[in-house]
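Local shape tokens:
==================
===
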Amino acid sequence: MSQEKEFFIIDSHAYLYKNYFALPRMLTSKGEEVGALYGFVRLLLKIIRDKKPKYLAVCYDSPGPTKREEKYSLYKANRPKTDRALIDQINLSWLLLEDLGIKTLKAQGFEADDIMAVLSEKSLKEGLKPIIVSQDKDIYSLISKGALVWDASSPVYFSEEAVLKKFSVPSYMVEDFLALTGDSSDNIPGAQGIGPKTAAALLKEYGSLEEIIKACEKEDIKDKNILKVKNSLNSVKLSKELVKLDFSAPCGGEILDFAFGGIKTEKISFWAQRLEFKELYALEKKEDLFSFEEIDNNKFPEINFTDMLNRDIPEFSCDGTEIFDGEKTAKIENLKDIVPLLKTKAVKYLYAAKEIAKESKISSLDNFEDIKLAYYLANAGQRKPQLDSIIKEFFPNENKKPVCFLKDIFNNLKKKLEEKKLSTIYEQLEKPFIFCLCEMENNGMAVDKNKMTRLDSYLEKEINSVLKEFKEKSKEEINLNSPKQVSFFLYEKLNLPLTDKQKSMFKTKTGYSTSEEALYALRPYSDLIDLIIKYRELSKLRSSFTQVLSEKIFEGRVRSEFDQTGTSTGRLSSSNPNLQNIPVKTEYGKMIRACFVSSPGFVLVSADYSQIDLRVLAHESLDERLKEAFEKGEDIHIKTACRIFAKRPQEIDSSMRRIAKTVNFGVIYGQSANGLSRELSIPQNEAAKYIEEYFDYYKGVKEWSLKTVEFAKKNGYCANFLGRRRELPDIYSANRALRAFAERIAVNMPIQSGSGDIIKKAMINIYEIIKGKEEIKLCSQVHDELIFEIKEDKVYYWAEIIKREMENSFKLSVPVLAEIKAGPNWAEMKPLNFGRQ
């Protein structure tokens, strides 16, 4: 389908809310908060730049009570009151878009979802293809009516198959599914005791919610799940009313009213100066940036996808949405359709090969290049590998479909990789790692949902208990989620006896800080601060883990997404959900980990590198004392403690060892005496003494650190032992803080990156051995730890192989050790005794 037929319908509230809570707080020079709006404007301009929509609308929730709230007063009542700063940005976005010439809609009593549904229906009748840009679950039901859904986080549109994978039901059943399960994010109750798996099974058996309700009306009910629905029947019926999209929302006007010919520039100057967004300054300076020139489709005409499959193609490019064979382009409706092409011997120029391989369920690829990976590797630490910005960088004056640039971009990147001696890492590490990641993402980790639900309820009770105690002791009604209210209470109402230095340290543009660092510094002055700290800890555990994880369970498992290009060091980042941030040592963290379990007949196995960063430091620095400690199997933290405290090993207690451990790892991060003093809550001169003693003892580490910084200053980059690089332009900055930060990165990156490449290579080797084996699954990577599910009678067999591969992926100048544990869940792991198997 040609771009002239596409109508992009954008959910403003979904992205404004997401940006408000996900992005760092951002203020203009006049103190106006604009972070959420900045993220939304970037998204909008990216859509306009990449997709060049000919029809465009941005939809808003109505500001007053909605029809759903009239039906159910507790609808969305679990959400905290919207911050004034976010409301202001929502209102600003409406005014900004109107001035940019972008059609905006809202209707009294209706939500953005309803307006999007009406526009989708209207556009289909006019022969347009609606592209719904949203992350709301209920929107997926529109796929069954012919719409496409896109969450803007990947190049791939949400397909019918993706809906089936997410909910285990087709898109036309999504509303019935949500009516049964409920939706905690909107406080929709659903049926008590009916989870996603049961809801999907009931709908598969009965065909619709209507038929399930009929089954509830029978007298002799033997199906226990139907009984559960019957006991919550009024709640289920109400939930269906709440999740059902309302097609009566008024969206007046003709379809031509939504035609979009480019951004109006008359008021750009005003908004650029007010919001201080560099993107708007760029529009102001280059007025024709989004006044679209037509893509020359005569040069590369679009053909039907089936016709593309029938062509003899020696090479092709694919960006996840289109195929280009050097002469013609074709739209992709479903990535599974391109499997026949992916299996050919043709040379494949891909953008985001992992996403393409995962969505098309391809376990291997021959003769392919990944532009996203190549760009990331060649520019680590500088720019994110977004296709639109990559095209602008290499071909700023050409106007073609993005897919048509991929081969030429890769040819440029190939030269860069060769010049920087990164080709081997690209070919032998990053490309093979794609398929290991796909497998790990597909496997995910098994979760005991009932245990997670009970833990969530427990945390909720704990939060309420803290709130009650705080209210009783403070005699105040304060929203502890509001930094502004907490700041006013602490610094104004309590009138804490702070020193001038403390006041200066915690002063911000809008008042005083309530950061974790500030609260810990204020603890001695009031026991109420401990309650605030505990409230934040518990709230974060609920919002980031127990609530999110429960919603992410599909077919009994949580499948995190891993980004190969998400860090500047080459290490993986995890999201949706992020399992890497689950606390390790706190009791609450252990309770969350206990919810991650093994499947029946399997055991959960953890393989964790022992002090891998310090071993890489020993390898890089060749410090004799550090090397000796690892070669003899000594406790490196006790060894350091002996030096900084001038004591013998038997005199070192747990507190001394903890301090030495902090010093050992602090050196890797370039921690200053000031930073170490804050972390250990000790005087700065004492922290300085520890660091001095450390470097006096490990002289090789000191020499290596200095040489590494000098290398970075001379060459403008740092590198690990494999040659992976990170560019450091700030190493030449006139700003002392930026320059100092770049120097710390120069020391840290070779260590972090080296550790990351060691585990990456081990994962590739293990994957090649275990792929296709039903008795073992690689489930997740969390920092230096790999988590597997292994058949009960095969644990020792596979554990020995895992240990061997992890310890020998690269040969260092010191031994590399992996510690293997096993247990029924992630919290209850015991070391495997290989001598007594």
Remarks:
- Residues 287-298 have pLDDT under 50 and may be disordered.
